[in-house]
Each structure stands twice: as C-alpha cells, then as structure tokens.
Design a protein that fits this description.
- The chain is of the alpha+beta class.
- It folds into 3 domains: about 5-50, Ubiquitin-associated (UBA) domain (Helicase, Ruva Protein, domain 3); about 60-110 and about 155-195, Elongation factor Ts, dimerisation domain (Tetrahydropterin Synthase, Chain A), CATH 3.30.479; about 115-155, GTP Cyclohydrolase I, Chain A, domain 1 (Orthogonal Bundle).
- It contains 9 helices and 5 strands, in the order ααααββααααββαβ.
- It has helices at about 5-15, 20-30, 35-45, 45-50, 80-85, 90-105, 115-130, 135-155, 170-180, and strands at about 60-65, 70-80, 160, 165-170, 185-195.
- It has a 3-stranded antiparallel β-sheet. It has a two-stranded antiparallel ribbon with strand order 3-4.
- Strand 1 (about 60-65) and strand 2 (about 70-80) form a beta hairpin.
- Helix 1 packs across helix 3 and helix 6 (about 90-105) packs antiparallel against helix 9 (about 170-180).
- The radius of gyration is 18 Å and the shape is flat.
- It starts with a helix and ends in a 10-residue tail after the last strand.
C-alpha cells in the first residue's frame, strides 16, 4: 500500500521518531500503525529521537587518512558530555563516519545544509526530464520527488546508506548510537580532501 505523508506524520507524533525511520517502519509493516510504532520502540529509535533537541557542546575531532595517503577527512562529531565523547563506542562511531565520508564523498551533513538554489536547479532538471519522457504534469511532480530523494542520497551524509551496513542510513546508525549511549549525537561538520580535487563537504 502507498505510505502517505499523513501516515508518516501520525507515526512521528505517536513515537517521536524521525521521518525516514517512520516511513521505513510503515513500509515494512504494510501501513499498520501499531506494528510500526512497536517496531520503532523496540529499536530504541523513538527514545533516541526525543534526545535530538539537546545541546551538543562536547565531542571530538576525528581524522582519517586513506591507506594511499591521497584521501583524508576531518570530522567534528558532537555529543552532550565529555564522558560519552571518551567512550569506545563514540570513538568507533566517529571513525566509521570518517571512513564513510572518505569513501562516499558526501558534500553536506543534512538536507538543511544543501543550498536552496541547488535544490531548485535539480528540481527543474528532473521536471524537464520527466516531461520530456512524456509524463503528465501530475505524475511528473511525483517523479521529481522520488528523483530528488536520490539526489539527496548522493550528496547528503545523513541520507546515504552506511558503507559498513547498507541496510541502514547514516542517520539511522547515529540514532542507534543515541539510543545506546543515552545522549544526543550530531555531526558538527566535516571536510574531505583528495589529491587533485578541491575540498568538499561542510557542516554548519
């Protein structure tokens, strides 16, 4: 069945989980709101989402240098306390995120960081493409939305499938760490450097 925006919103209101997690939960449970909510609670994502608004003034700077010394990453990963910043799990998360950035080359931390003019330009390209394919305007709009998701997955860190476990997005991996460690965790910013390329990626 089709998962509507209202269904996703209702599940978010019920659990406090993120929109991507709510949509996936509904898809996995054929739109059954109760089963999807139970699933999210079992995974700890609902609990984790409630921590997202907390201030993250601690953390660490992680560095990663690829084995051939031609690709490097600087990553700022933030949490709430110095205690959590020193835990092996937090340090492993920072390392794995830096490894992911080195290999997958995201340009932005989240969708909110993508410049509006870049998004509008992509929408225009995809809309023209859909219309050129002979799609009616109403259908073209839906196609554009789907292709825009793919656009975000290519350039946004949190939307990408995690390189070490492609069943999860980077956002879901971070949410799981929030649930496990009991603190809000945020990617502050990052920079990826590659020989022969200009620096890309940003945080704030």
């Amino acid at each position: 069945m089709e998962i509507t925006a209202k269904m996703v919103k209702d599940l978010r209101d019920l659990t406090g989980a993120g929109p991507l997690d709510c949509k996936k939960a509904l898809e996995q449970h054929a739109g059954d709101m109760d089963k999807a909510a139970t699933y999210l609670r079992e995974k700890g994502l609902a609990k984790a989402a409630k921590k997202v608004g907390r201030a993250t003034n601690e953390g660490l700077i992680e560095t990663y240098l690829h084995h051939n010394a031609r690709v490097g990453v600087l990553l700022e990963l933030n949490c709430e306390t110095d205690f959590v910043a020193k835990t092996p799990q937090f340090r492993e998360l920072a390392h794995n995120l830096a490894l992911h950035i080195a290999n997958m080359s995201p340009r932005y931390v989240s969708r909110e960081h993508v410049p509006a003019e870049l998004v509008e330009a992509e929408k225009a390209v995809q809309r023209k493409r859909a219309l050129d394919e002979g799609k009616p305007e109403a259908v073209a709009d839906k196609i554009v939305a789907g292709r825009l998701d793919k656009f975000y997955q290519d350039i946004v860190l949190l939307d990408q499938e995690f390189i070490l476990d492609d069943t999860k997005t980077v956002a879901q991996m971070i949410q799981q760490a929030i649930a496990d460690l009991g603190e809000n965790i945020q990617v502050g910013r990052f920079a990826r450097f590659a020989i022969g390329e200009s620096a890309d990626g940003n945080g704030a």
